[in-house]
Amino acid sequence: MSERPSFRRRAPPVSDRRREAMMLVLLLAVGLAIAARPLWEPRAPQGTLVEVSGDVPNPGLHVLEVPTVERAVAAAGGDPAGQAATRLHDGDHIIVSGTGVRIAPASNPLLVGLPVDINHSDVTGLAALPGIGPKTAAAIVDDRQSNGPFRSVGELERVRGIGAETVEALRPYLTLGDLR
Question: What are phi and psi of 25, to 5 degrees?
Fold first, then answer.
């Protein structure tokens, strides 16, 4: 039986000098990548995040360096003339109509990074919480209407279907607001 010939090329041995050069290039590339890392990290926009809707050309979320109704309307492409210089806060929802401008609470507080107020939020806002569906959100609203406002986040356990683990998981996303 004869040996089959191999047509494979053998790679020439890498010299020590070439190996050192490749290692140096690799180390330089890693060093540059580490040094440039802060340049590509995402940064949160600086300013106040508000939502503008209604009779404006560009409704949606806008970041304002100077958070006033006038600047919010202008950022959404509306005519700021005659608008008040009323100061806005993160998450404010500015609704522009033919009759004027109205400031409302955030339509979706979690979207703008604000906690959800369990004493005032509707079913839609509560259902946006992780692990809470529409039925549990409706149960929270029903309980609040029947038994009054929650005095602590822990009182959510009085709602059927919500246990201590769920309360602890939700705690960072919740606030109590005022207890009217």
Answer: -65, -45
Domain residue spans of the chain: 48-109, 115-175
Residues 104 and 96 sit within 8 Å (Cβ to Cβ): no
| Separation between Cα atoms, residue 128 and residue 132, nearest integer Å | 7
Looking at the predicted structure, is the pLDDT value of residue 18 above 70? Answer: yes
Helix (H, G, I), strand (E, B) or coil at 30: helix
- Using 50, 70 and 90 to split pLDDT, how confident is the model at 45? low
- Binned at pLDDT 50, 70 and 90, residue 120 comes out as confident
Give whole-number Cα distances, 31 to 38, 40, 81, 129, in Å.
13, 15, 53, 41
Q: d(Cα 95, Cα 76) in Å, to the nearest integer?
A: 11
Q: What is the DSSP letter of 87?
A: B
Residue 140 CB neighbour total at 10 angstroms = 25
Q: CATH says 115-175 is which class?
A: mainly alpha
Task: Give the Cα separation of 134 and 82 in Å (integer).
Answer: 41
Cβ neighbours around 109 below 10 Å, total: 20
Q: Would you say how long the chain is, in residues?
A: 180
Nearest in space to 167 (alpha carbons), one of 176, 151, 155, 178: 155
